[in-house]
Amino acid sequence: MTATQSSPASTQTGPVLILLFSATLWGLSWWPVKQLVAIGVTGALLPMLAYGIIGISTSWMLWQERHQWRRQTALLLALALVGGWANTAFVSALMVGDVVRVMFLFYLSPVWSVLGGRIFLGERIPAARAVAVAVAVVGLWLVITGGGAPQDISLTLADALALSAGLGFAGNNIIARAAQDIPLRSKTVSVFLGCGLLSGLVFLWQGEPVPDLPTFAWLGVVLYGFNWLLVATATWQYGVTHIESGRAGVILLAELLVAVVSASWWGGEQLSAIEWIGGALIASAALIEALDIGHKTAPYPLNKESA
Percent helix, strand and coil across the chain, each rounded to 5? Predict the structure, then answer.
């Protein structure tokens, strides 16, 4: 989990395959979520347990690296809160919303990263990134209005959660770029803990009783956390620390492709032609941003959980 120098292209076959595997896991993550919802695991209980258990069981890493992140404790806490909310909102959106629509709206996160980097870090916005922002905004308008007038905007709870998850992920990217002294493992663990904590607070606020679920349901939540989320996170980290960021950004768009195709095929989800066009524009904007990053800079390696 330690960042390393990028390998020559000829030696990157392994990391590329591992990163594709990770992107596939993330793209298919909607399926176990929907299965768990179907057997009664609803509300904030799923992210609270799936992320919280992993966070608690790996918290020793955070303590082990305390001397390295102590000077940036405030940023570590910010990562836990912002990243925790990003994951809480993302899983919750998948639980209650249409997977394809949720993924398209979540993938506006590169746009928020560009704007946030400009506002909070003073980063320059090259022409290609400005184009990506404009394309994504048009795509967003088509998805949420169906091509209608601004007064036709109608956001569902899942839409709001997906958008806020993308904003949280983008915020985490910005914080991580400023938190260079914090080891990658500590970032990851803090986000798992933050997600468990915030989900727990939401669960208490909702005031819902703990459901009376069969043993296999509880086991399913634990397996989802350790056999899906943890594996996806570890392989994601390995990939992004061994591949230049621009190439990794393009490869990781496979997550969106896998999610859209699988949800349309297995889940039978359908969008209107206008919504598909909007989603394609959002995906194109993410691709433009990934390619532009690869030509301009090589930022601190990030992953979905540590961001």
Answer: 75, 0, 25
Predicted TM-score (pTM) above 0.85? no
Q: Which of 86-90, 154-158, 163-167, 222-226 is least confident?
A: 154-158
| Residue whose tokens read 């057997």 | 39
Q: What is the pLDDT of residues 72-95, one digit of tens each?
A: 999 999 999 998 999 899 999 999
**One-letter identity of residue 112:** W
Cβ–Cβ under 8 Å, residues 241 and 14: no
Residue type, 201: L
Tokens of 92: 């919750």
Tens digits of per-residue pLDDT, 93-147?
A: 999 998 988 988 888 877 787 777 778 777 787 787 788 888 888 888 888 776 6
Going by the DSSP 8-state scheme, the letter that residue 2 receives in this structure is -
Residue 76 contacts by C-beta under 8 Å, 6 or more apart in sequence?
69, 179, 182, 186, 187, 190
Structure tokens at 38: 């179907």
Cβ neighbors of 3 (< 8 A, separation 6 or more) are 184, 241, 300, 301
